[in-house]
Every structure is written in structure tokens, then in C-alpha cells.
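PROTEIN–LIGAND DATA SHEET

This sheet pairs a single protein chain with one bound small molecule, zinc ion, given as SMILES. Inputs appear in the order they were entered. The predicted three-dimensional arrangement of chain and ligand is reported afterwards as a C-alpha cell string under its own label.
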Amino acid sequence: MTKNLIFAADIGGTTCKLGIFDQNLKRLKNWAIKTDTSDPTGRQLLKGVYNAFIAECDMLNYKLEDVIGMGIGVPGPVDFEAGVVNGAVNLNWQSKVNVKALMEEMVEFPVIVDNDANIAALGEKHLGAGQDANDVVAITLGTGVGGGIISNGKIVHGHNGSGAELGHIRVDHEQHFDCNCGKAGCIETVASATGVVNLVYHYHPKLTIQSQLRPMISSKEITAKDVFDAAKSGDIFSLFIVEKIAQYIGYLASILSVTTNPKYIILGGGMADAGHILLENVKTAYSQFAFTPSQENTEIVLALLGNEAGIVGAAGLIKTYIIEQE
Ligand SMILES: [Zn+2]
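PREDICTION REPORTED AS:
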């Protein structure tokens, strides 16, 4: 192949991370621009991304004829085949934006678009914790819970693009907390950063032991990080909460392990920064829940790429869907 460059854009609510990679996903250039949310049609934002690539290529003496394709990640639901984003609140896109068509008006090479959770999973599959595996699941534990499933090397999109919306699997069957999706008991309500706080307020009235969290609970300033930090220092109530969270995540992991039999189940997002205390508790819960044959050689691991998973995965779209198809 003579063409050897990949353009990648990970579009977020405040910044667009941009990258130029070679055909083996080696990163040649890495920078960011401010996200232009002034235009609800998306045209301005995408024009800004295009201009940034043109300027950078001029500077680096890269030729547009050498570009294999551009991968784009967006924070909203995507029709993968069409490259259409069905609205993105953080970008001020209230209705459909055909990202693929708008970008392809400006460039000669193909453009592939997917949502941020899916590209993060693909990034971990290519260069992160899921390297050398074709079957990988990533669970992103942030303000909400997201996910991506890579099956047989490809992202699972499902018939209307809502495949792998892992945050809305009901794990709390008693449905203590309402979810943004309109239902209740979704894993997002009990195992996201906000979910941790939900659990703290639910269980603390029953608290009979001393806990170092008490002052933060009373002042309503408690965060998920406080809970994990206290658990690490041996606080019994915090350990109880961490075990609860781990049970929910372990239960989700057991469902995923039976449905897709991944080589790796990768825990990422801000909450995964808690590290081994979360990982070990999830592993324990998972081993209790999961069907034994599907557990064999499946590893639960922490994500490796952090915030870089998205940009790597955006480039990974071109690697997976164009280069590896040839
Ligand atoms: Zn939900």
C-alpha cells in the first residue's frame, strides 16, 4: 500500500483531540483544538477539524493523497453504516448530523464515525489492555456507565446502533434509583461515580459503625473517590460500599462473559483509577456469578490507555474497517 496516513478525531464537548497515525497505528502527531459548539448543524465544528488537519499537514509536509481515511468519535448515538449522529447534547447538536457526508464533502478519502464508548473499546483492543485479542469488552465507569463490545475483531453495533449500551442493563433488581433513561435499577445508577454516591446515601442511615466518611456525608460533599480512598485505608463502611459496587459490575461482567465470551473484560473510566481495590473485588464477584466454561482464560483487567483510548480507537476505525479488510 502506498497510502500510509490515518487521521483521527475524538470530538468531546470542550476539546477535539486530533491525531495523525501511520498505517500500524504509530502516532506521528497529537494535538487538540477547542470544540466549536456554536453551530447546531455541525458544519462549523467539522470544518474546524478539517482546517486543523490541513494546517498540520502543511507544516509537517504530509500529503493528503497519502491519507487512507479519517476516523471520528462523537459523544452521541451513531448510525454506523450511514455515519449519522442522532443528536449530541454536549456538542449542541439537537438533531441528526451526517458527519460522514459533511466531512466527505471536504476530503477525498473515506470517513468512518462511531460513538465515544465504542471507539474507546476499539482503542484498548488495538493498543491497550486488549491487545492481540479479537474478543474484548470494555466497561467505562465514569459519571455514567458506557461500554463497547468487540466481537471477532469488529465493534458490535446491533440493528439500530444501540448495541453495547451497557449502562442500562438492570443489575439492581430492587430498583432503588431512577435512571436518566426512564427506567430504574440500571447499572449506571449504582456503579457510576454518581451511583457510588447513591449507594452511600442509601446505606448510611443504617450505619452503626464509625466511618471516616461521616463528615463528608453530612456536608453532602462526598465523591466516589472519597469512598475508594477510605476503603483503601480500611474504612469498613467504605469497603462495604465498594463490595456492593463490585457485585454489580461482576454481575454485568458475568452476563457479558456468557453472551460474547471475551478474552478480556476491561474496566476503564474515571472510577477505574481506584485500581486494584475495585479490580480485585470485581474479580471475586465475577467468579461467583459467571458460568464456569465461559470464565476460562477470560481476564478482567484495568484499561491502559486512559483518556487516549478514544483517539487511538478513532484511528483504529480505519485500521479495522479499511486496512484490515484489504
Ligand atoms: Zn438506564
